[in-house]
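agent> Task received from the user: take the single chain below, predict its 3D structure, and emit structure tokens. No templates, no multimer pairing.
agent> Plan: (1) validate residues, (2) run structure prediction, (3) serialize to tokens, (4) report one or two observations.
agent> Step 1 OK, no nonstandard residues flagged.
tool_call: predict_structure(input=
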Amino acid sequence: MASASPEPSKRSLPKRLNPLLAPDETPPHEELIARRRLGQTDLKVKPSQVGTSNATKPGNLGQFDYAHLRAPLPKNLKGSEIFAPQRHTPNPEAYFLMRRSSDGFISATGMFKLAFPWAQHAEEQAERDYIKSLPSSSQDEVAGNVWISESFALELAEDYSIVPWIVALLDSTPVKGADNSEKIISSPPNFAFTMKDKVHLPHPKEAARASTPGRGRGRPRAVSPSKSATPSVKNGSPRKQRVSKASKEANAASAREANASLQDSLDKSAEAAEAAESELSNGVKEEKTEGKKAVLKVVSETIVNGTQETTNTGLEFQFPGGTANVPVPENPEKMIAEAQEMVDQALKIDGESSRASKRKADEMDEASDEDGEGVGEQPAKRAKILEEELKTERVRNRALMGVTATLLIGALIPFIV
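)
tool_result: status=success, residues=417
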């Protein structure tokens, strides 16, 4: 595999490191190995969140087996965003380096949080995006974490100054279980250090110095030959190492913390994906409702020819910009014909009403002629009646056109929204 070592020139890391993981504070290699434990959890999210992101894909949920190594965090994390204090919850005392059992990949997310506990969200996201862009990272963000190959984890550990911790996590010594015989937990595959990987390992002299307890000045105390030569057990099988009740409780608590950290990362990833999807959905809906409105105008034109007044009323339908590909109704001619038929029927009824009004006016004129009274007033009365009829007809026509327009819009809305 080609080297995918991070290049400091292309990214900047937080300046403040975790002092409890410094070489002088790191326990011996054998002690780190003894701290490792196997873990198993059931990753789950809300039904509405399934499939909304890489982490919530059905294939990345369910039972998850892993090995973890508990590492300390500073007590004072003031200013940190990735370990921001929560209400009624104390700051965590430790976090976990994790290696999944399926392929042995290591969580780069956990490495970053432990190495830079005072980091800001923007710094964590920038490093996350950078690592995801490299070929050594997995495409499956199980539990909302970014997982990287073992070889790349050793390279990254140099930048994070936590090489001894990753070396211990990768050690081929069998990892202890979770002190729960009911669970069957698979272990990560053994990792064979290549010559390239051994470049990142501590120097043998440094490792020996770290694992050797300090001695006082002067010569070491002599040991009695008789005591050193006497075996502790003469006959029978060696005693089994007892696990105290306190040790079991501590291991169980550590397993719960590790499971909780995985589930918490998954929950945050699912909530972020859900919020992003909701924001995108609201943006699309707003664009449809505000930016793409169809406008319908009723155009009316009145033509006066002597004493005869004619009013032509029509519809002007304006589609919004960017709707050139709006689907056309299957049978627009039929829709227009039906609307025209409705208008014709309404006009027919209106015409009969107008003729009835005219007959009534004629009868009134004839009655007046017979009486012979108010002869001078007839032209004025007749003109007034005709004017009122024209006004009534214009109002009725506009109302009919409004009804027709409403029906047309209702029929066209499904094709433009």
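agent> Step 4: summary for the user.
Strands lie at 37-43, 62-72, 94-100, 106-107, 147-148, 295-305, 308-318.
agent> Done.
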